[in-house]
Amino acid sequence: MERREATWQVYRTMHASRHLYHIKTLRTVLSELMYAEPDAWRAVGITRAALARYREADHRSITGLERAHLTDRQHMVGHIIDRDEPLSCLELFDYWRATDRVVIASRGENRSNTLGDWIAFDNADAEYFRRLGIGFSFRRDIEGELTRKLASQLSDSSRPT
Fold first, then answer.
1. pTM
2. Which DSSP category does 19 fall into?
3. Do 97 and 7 touch, CB atoms closer than 8 A?
4. In terms of C-beta density within 10 A (0-12 exposed, 13-18 middle, 19 or more buried), how is residue 29 classed?
5. Which of 5, 9, 26, 145 is deepest in the core (most CB within 10 A)?
6. In the chain, at which residue ranges do the beta strands (DSSP E only) sit?
7. Are strands 135-136 and 101-106 parallel, antiparallel or unpaired?
8. What are phi and psi of 83, to 5 degrees?
9. pLDDT 10s digits, 19-73
10. Are 60 and 140 in contact (CB under 8 A)?
């Protein structure tokens, strides 16, 4: 809780002096502070294309997949900075957790910002696809099992009844 309080104090200071900084500076500083949270960049889904790549690789780690943010960082920072009064500590962290979500996608989907149809999964505890720098971890017994389960559910739901 001590780090959250410190982060909130930095946010309040930046909010009060926002007219002194370019939005890119505000976005960089606030994003880096929030990235220290254990559930930063929490994966909540995977695109069909990324899931197909895992299926082809027999649910092993592969290259060419990225975390695609569902909400643009500029929008997120604008929401917490461009307001008359700063958010409370609880409001700040609740907003960031709800909004700082990603979907595992192919590099092409992420770079062209065309996620299209993606499959949601429960990751409230941020256990899947944990962040590793700008990348993410892939553990065969955890993410491999999740992708296997999702692929199985997808193929079962597409079978005629």
1. 0.85
2. G
3. no
4. middle
5. 26
6. 42-47, 65-69, 101-106, 118-120, 131-132, 135-136
7. unpaired
8. -150, 155
9. 999 999 999 999 999 988 888 899 999 999 999 999 888 887 888 899 999 998 8
10. yes
